[in-house]
Specification:
binds zinc ion; 196 residues; single chain; 10 helices; YggX-like; mainly alpha
Amino acid sequence: MENEDKIELFRSMAESDPGNELAHFSLGKLYKEAGRLEEAEASLKCCLELNHDHSVARQFLGESLLALGRKPEAIELLEASIILAHERGEFMPRDAMCGLLKEYGIEPPALTSAEDTDAIEAGEFVCKRCRKARPGLDEPPFSGELGAAVQEDICVDCWKEWIAMSIKVINEFRLNMATPEANEIYETNLREFLGL
Ligand SMILES: [Zn+2]
């Protein structure tokens, strides 16, 4: 699907169902990527009203505000969001937000380590998403490159979290998994959720 078509799809979903957190989020992301920053801000704020702690929505909103030249507002949001993402163990958006602050010459807030640094140093299997030395999957959850990447990088606990999340993805986007469009949306959300 072209991005314009996706924008149209998610926009109509968000309009007809204003409580649809994922539609607002996906729309905000696409607007940001298209440089439609004011619209990105509005959609991401709708997402955050429905899910205050959505770390990636906070990251994208911070990026949009910086691109809009609203630096003090962006910094305040990012500093609070980094701490929140850290507490929630969401390291990828946390690190991305720290990177954004550093790009603007600002030192990110100090955080106590929550990662299994010993295991990382010992070369054990460490989940790419939660950065913990937890058991991985015995086999790929599905065939293909993405299934192999899940097995290689993701622990069983994070995979179970995705299974729970995927129900929300299928419901909120009303996915008919028999269609390629639905599979594309499913895969995008899986990659985002697991950081692949
Ligand atoms: Zn994990």
